[in-house]
Amino acid sequence: MGRMQIDPSIVQRNVKLMLKHIQDYELIKKNQHPRYHTVTQFYKENGLARQNFIKYYHRFQQQGRDPSALLPVTRGRKPKYKDSIHCPSYLEQKIIELRKEGFNRYSIHRLLREDPHIPKEKMVSPITIYRIAARHGLGGLKGKEKPNVERYHKAEPGDLGHADLHYLSKFSIANSKGQRYYILGVIDDHTRICWLEVVESAKAIDVSFAMLDILLALHMRYGIQFRGMLTDNGPEFTSNKGNKENHLFERLMKHFGIKSSHTRPYTPQTNGKIERFWKTLEEELLEEVIFDSVEALREELLKYLLYYNEHRPHQGIDGLTPLEKLHQYGTENNNKEKITNAK
Fold first, then answer.
1. Which ranges in 47-114 belong to alpha helices (H)?
2. Looking at the domain 161-328, which fold is it?
């Protein structure tokens, strides 16, 4: 996915549309809009994701209300997450040495950029520097006490999956002609292994078919079969009209023997593992990127999933990769069986 040429007419239409949205938004905030009474109504009727709209609105304000600030930034280099895959061993060693001397990731990044012996194309981002340091037990600087955070996870892979639907910006895919796209994600509570599918609507039928693909993919590649699934109360996942058991997604869960449960309204932290994953995905892959097509998006998501599941250390599971966490469970389980058989 390199730097792409975008049709100027599409650029102009997108800017005009965003300027109109901003005008509406500011009138709502002043209680002067003739149609919209709340921003929630405004977001819903225009198919806008609040987080994405606010991001562009703040940038528009910070850049003196310059219309060019409303355009997504095409990425002319590889995505951020690929830095950590291709970090040379000599560069990793240099990062470790600087970290041991007490430099933080931003200082290390500056020092490496100033080093004439390090080619620019080999440079890595500050977030990759932090991950390399954390992998070697150097995540926190000496002399600083970190709070003892207790982390909770289910005892076995498949005990609980966290599922959620992520809204993509209208401008994420070039030439989409206003078509909205979403990403359905499921993350395993125990291992943090995750899988994603792009869907073209938030309707229960599209989300349910995507969930079927996710369940099959996680079982075929990682042997994970879910016994529980946690979602929010969105209409794509359940019904609040008294006929929950007839909802398509609920029937799919029942068919696979998966116990379906839902978060309490207005408490997204209950499903915090998948919510945190979305933030990571935005930072490392999606943020301010225009994809050539939905197929290009799917291809990049697949590459990212293999990186996230099989190569990326995860702080929530003691610096292991999700795949290593899965193997750790298998090893521990086999040892328990051997002890039991020996007795």
1. 50-62, 89-100, 105-114
2. Nucleotidyltransferase; domain 5 (3.30.420)
